[in-house]
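pasting DUF3450 domain-containing protein for the record, 264 residues
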Amino acid sequence: MHKKIALLGTAAVVAVTAIAPASAQFREALDISRQTARAGAQSQQRIEQLDQQTTELLTEYRAALKQLDLLQRFNASQRAEIENQLEQIAGLQQDIANVEGLERAVVPLIGDMLEQLKLIVAADIPFLSTERQRRLERLEAVMADPTQTAASRYRLIIEAYQIENEYGRTIQAYDGTVDDNGTELTVEFLRIGRIALIYKSADDSILRIYNKKTREFEDLDKSFLDDVRLGLRMAKEQTPPGLLEVPVTAPKPAIEAVSDTSGE
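structre below
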């Protein structure tokens, strides 16, 4: 009996001795497992962070690609616009060169037109003489002004021609003065186009018409007085247009008329 108890005690001691190293190994294994789990969690967290960063970078990359595409398209449109502007500049430069050549040709032409206009006015019946002479003087001043462009000179000379051309197809009444044997007489003029220039005194005692051949006013038969009165009313728009009977001479070209005048 005592032997059995002794043996059991010995076995218990052996068992306790055997369990102690196993328990230490278990704790060590448990610690390693815990460390591994923590490391795994940290790794997973790092992976998730990297995945989020990768997603963000991919989004930024795609946005950058889209922006790059837009910039490339914009640059292409800008290049096309620049090329178009360069073509326009080349065209403008060519136009400028043409204008400079045209200006060199136009300036003498304008001078010739002004001289011809002077001849027309000189050969014409003497209506609105002061006004027309001042217009010619203004044109001469413009032609001599170096600050005036060829375009502005051409425009003014064309306007003057248009005004002179308008005289040929209009009827006009205006007041003026004439020298009547050394006395200044206020009269009323009637211009019928360029074919007749007549004036009469306020009391109708004087009625005269311009003679293009003699370049003088001469008495007009009083039988034309009623027609002259009618013409004055028509010119003032006091009565509707109608037919007038006035004596006229056959017109002559301006150059020929001036030559005839020079030879007299």
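Residues 164 and 232 are 21 Å apart (CA to CA).
The helical segments are 2-123, 129-144, 150-167, 225-235, 254-263.
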